Amino acid sequence: MSFATDSTEYYLETEVLTATPQKLQLMMINGAIRFAYQAQQLSEQQEKEEAWERLMRCREIVAQILCSIKDDGSELVRSVAGIYFFLFQELTELHAKDEYDRLNGVLKVLNEERETWEELCRQMPEAPERPSDSEREITSSDAEELMESHDETTNTAPDEQRPPSSYGYDSSTDYYPNSGSGISFDA
Question: What is the largest CA-CA distance in the chain?
Answer without folding.
Answer: 72
